Structures are given as C-alpha cells and as structure tokens.
C-alpha cells in the first residue's frame, strides 16, 4: 500500500530551486532512505512532508504531496492533524528541557487524546517501544537534558509514539551519535518498521544499505533514482548513482 | 619598560575594582553604625511592629509597621499590574511581533526606562491622581493604587527587557520540536518556550520588584504619605523610601529620629538584598 506520494513537487528558497519535480511513491511500513551529497535537497524534501518548511520565510512550494491520498499542500490542510500523523525526529536530539515524563506526555496533553489515569502506562509503553524503559524507569523525573545523546534521541522518538503517527520522518538521526549508539538506533528502526512507515535522510551510505527497504538518490534538487535498496547499491541504472554509491564523489 | 607598563595597568585596574568594593563596604558600615544606634533607645520589636510613626511628638514613637505595609502594598499592587503585562509584552516582542514592530517596541520600552522618576511622579500627580479621585469617587486621588500604577509603569521596562532576553535565548529547536508534534504556536510558547525561560523570567520579575521597592520620588508624589495602616488599596499610604526622603532633611543629626531613618534604610537594604539574591540565584540556575 502506498502511503506517501508526491507529484512534481517543486520547492524554492527565494530564487533557489531546492526541489525539482520530485515524484515518488513510498509504501507503508517500510524504511525508505534518502541519500545524496549535502545540499541536494533531501532534508528539504523531508521537512516538506509535514510542512515544517512553512516555518521558513520566503519559500514557495508547488505540486502535490498525498498522504493517505489527501493532498496536504492545499490551503485546507490542518497542520495540527498533519503533524500528528507525520512525526519528525531531528538531526540533533531535541528533547524539551523538562522531565522525561513531561517529554512523553507533551503530545498527549496538547492533543488531549489520553486520560490522566492512563499516563503511567502510556509512558511505560512508549519507553518500552524505544527500549529505554529499563534504563529510565527510575529516572522519569530527571531532566531529559541530563540523558546521554543516544538516550535523548530515543526519547525524541518515544515522545512521538503516543500521538499515534503513521509516518516517522528522521533527519540524519544518528549523525551526532557514536557507532555503537548508531547501531542500536538502527536496530530500533527495524523494530518500529512493524508499525510505522519510516523515511530517513542519511549521509551514511552504509546506514542506508543496512536499514532501508527502498532508497532514493538525490542530486542538486532532483531525485535521480529510486528503487529497492539492493538494486540501488549493487546495480544502479544511472551513472551518477553508481558514482555516488561507489564513493567517487559526495 | 614594557614590563613596567603591564605592571602599572594591572595595578590601576586592581585599584578600580577594589575601590568599588571598599565603597560598598563603607556605605554598609556607615548605614549599620547609624541605624543600629537607634536600638539603644528603642527595642527591635517595637520598631518593626509598632503601629505608630510619630517621630517628633513627645514621647516619640518609632513604629515602622505602617511604612513597611505601605511599601508592601504599593509594591504588591505594582507587581500584580506589571508582571502579567510585562511578560505578555515580552512574549509578544520575542515570539510574535514582526521584526519591524519588534524594533519599534523595544526602543519604545527603553524610552520608558529613560524617563526620570520625578517626571513620572508629576505626570501621575497631574493626570492620574485627579482621574482616580473623580472616577472612583474618593476623598483623595493620592492613594496606594495611584502609586502602584505609576510604579508598575516604571517596573515594566526592566521586566519586559529581561524577560524578552530570556525568551529569545531559548533555543529554536525546542519550539521546532513542539510544532513538529502538532502543537499550535501558542501551545509551543506556553508549554515549552516559557518553561524553558522560566528562571530568566523569575529574575526579570525580581529585578522589577527590586526597582519598585527602592523607588522614592514618583511614589512620594502620588501616594499621599499618610503613615497609617492602609485598609484598602484606595487609601493614602507612606512608603519607607518616601519617609526617609521626606524627613531626613528636617531631622537633627544624631537624634533618635535620625537614627530611626537609618534603621529604615537597613530594613530596605535587607529587603532589596533578598530580592536581588533571588534574582541572582535564578539567573545562575538559568545559565546552568
């Protein structure tokens, strides 16, 4: 089942043409990796999917983004429900400077989707889902900024879950983590894939090859090639893709 | 030669630094010496909780309870008015206003801070006081409420600019995270940005209160200066600062009255010190 579809998506920062005619279909409950050199537009594409690009001034967007067959670019889109459906994990872990508990309860509280007597079980389930429960069950009131970076990033994933998103967007989620933490976050992504559609932007080609089902290669705002991950890495159709995945530039 | 220059500059800077500390210590010693002399004649409890301030009657009464209450009433009134307004303006300036409006508002608020307090006092006396007398149908417009309003006006710049700095200093990533979770702009500000800035905001409030409680001129001109225990905000009061300012010129040096005014100075000093300490601790926590 296709969950996200873009058609001729174009994006401009002022005069800079950041995304050029991106057309892509992403299937449900899979991991899609977007790779490409810095500045190729992969982060911009990710941010456009939940309209975080709206926060930047002087931008223009055209084309279609269909999520569950609804165009989220028309004027009627409710940003609150869009962002509930499409959660985002940022490059640098950005837990709120509040307790672990409050970080997880933030979403449910603003959307008023859970009754207070369910808070405790919700916290436990969310932390279990990101494999943090055993580490943090006695530290729920600790300030989230006191956790290790890896724990912070897991917490950032955990706090998305109570809102029940369909899609998790991850913008280089491991770029500030060490190799062991990276491996553990990747393991977590494989677990989360059972229930969520994940799109990950990464600089790390090995990471894309390890975790993703599909891979898109972007260059200078264009989606050069998109297909099954093994094909992209071993048998790409485009010369440019081949050059990039074999490390000839990037 | 070069070595000597270094040495000289170092010593000059050291001297400047030490001088300011020495001056503060000397002021403090002088204040204590003069103020504490009062307690050879009057005991501390009578001084702090005495209900009568009749310094030149015979026998004199040096009870500063009405003055402390006067200061507290005016300060509390000003705080209740200035804090919500000040924080709301700070939020508006830091988070909502467009860059142009932001610049205009910031310089406007700095302008308020530049108005001398005596000017604020006479503006209050000629406009606010008759207005309050007329519309609230009071025997006099010189009330604690008038003082609170004028002082709120004076505390605003401090509160707004420090709170605005604290809010602006909150990293953008927290707000971004909140918005990405589907928070509205207001939810992001209220639940994340303000909480992250809370210690800076507490400091802003405390420094604003510190400014209010030490203020003399404006409050002397609009509060009526009656040294009695106020029963409501709409009665004249006299603050500690106004008492010192009004009576110091007329008192005989080294009389009991003179010492009593210094003792009020000590009380004021202690109160302001505590308020500044809370503000400092709060800022310190913020930096951590």
Overview of the molecule:
- The complex is a heterodimer of chains A (250) and B (288).
- In chain A, 34% of the residues lie in helices and 27% in strands.
- Chain A is α/β, with parallel strands linked by helices.
- Chain A has one domain (2-245): Rossmann fold (3-Layer(aba) Sandwich).
- In chain A, the strands form 2 sheets. A 6-stranded mixed beta sheet of chain A has the order 6-7-8-3-9-10, with helices on both faces. In chain A, strands 2-1-4-5 form a 4-stranded antiparallel beta sheet, with helices on one face.
- The longest helix of chain A has 14 residues, at 179-192.
- Chain B is mainly alpha-helical and 288 residues long.
- Chain B folds into 2 domains: 2-40; 53-287, MetI-like (MetI-like fold, Orthogonal Bundle).
- Helices cover 75% and strands 1% of the residues of chain B.
- Chain B contains 12 helices and 2 strands, in the order ααββαααααααααα.
- A two-stranded antiparallel ribbon of chain B has the order 1-2.
- In chain B, helix 1 (2-36) crosses helix 12 and helix 3 (65-96) runs parallel beside helix 6.
- The mean pLDDT of chain B is 90.
- The chains are: A alpha/beta (250), B mainly alpha (288).
- Chains A and B meet through helix 2 and helix 3 of A and helix 7 and helix 8 of B.
